[in-house]
């Protein structure tokens, strides 16, 4: 029995090592806060470990765990005050340089203005690059709901003057 548990733990650790950065990025985009994103992923991974047998039998274990992350975010969002959605931006720029950090900050702020369903749909469809059916599976809803929520979210983002000003002036407000 001990050898079986050690094998299971090693398999889980290998999965976590490979999936952590992507899960954390998704959680950060959903929460807008680095520390809350870490909490969401940690809680999701606790649930994943408890259900590791089911996760390993799934066709796509990463998609299964991403769904747990989305559900955990939704569960936490119901308990949070909406004004606290976006509280931080990444402390360091991505590989595309400093000039992109302001654009990312504006996008994160804009994402924070979206209702939870629209935010989830936009993040999963356009940042995670999931198909409509994959996003629907991750959100636990129909493909039509994903289409509707993503469309409404993108339309709202397009209407925000902070994003329009940034893109029309080449990144400088």
UniProtKB/TrEMBL annotation:
InterPro entries: RNA_pol_sigma-70-like, RNA_pol_sigma-70_dom, RNA_pol_sigma-E_actinobac, RNA_pol_sigma70_r2, RNA_pol_sigma70_r4_t2, RNA_pol_sigma_r2, RNA_pol_sigma_r3/r4-like, WH-like_DNA-bd_sf
Keyword Iron: no
Entry superkingdom: Bacteria
Pfam families membership: Sigma70_r2, Sigma70_r4_2
Domain RNA polymerase sigma factor 70 region 4 type as annotated: residue spans: 105-157
Keywords on record: DNA-binding, Sigma factor, Transcription, Transcription regulation
Segments forming domain RNA polymerase sigma-70 region: 21-80
Family under the similarity heading: Belongs to the sigma-70 factor family. ECF subfamily.
Name listed for the protein in its UniProt record: SigE family RNA polymerase sigma factor
Source organism of this protein record: Kitasatospora putterlickiae
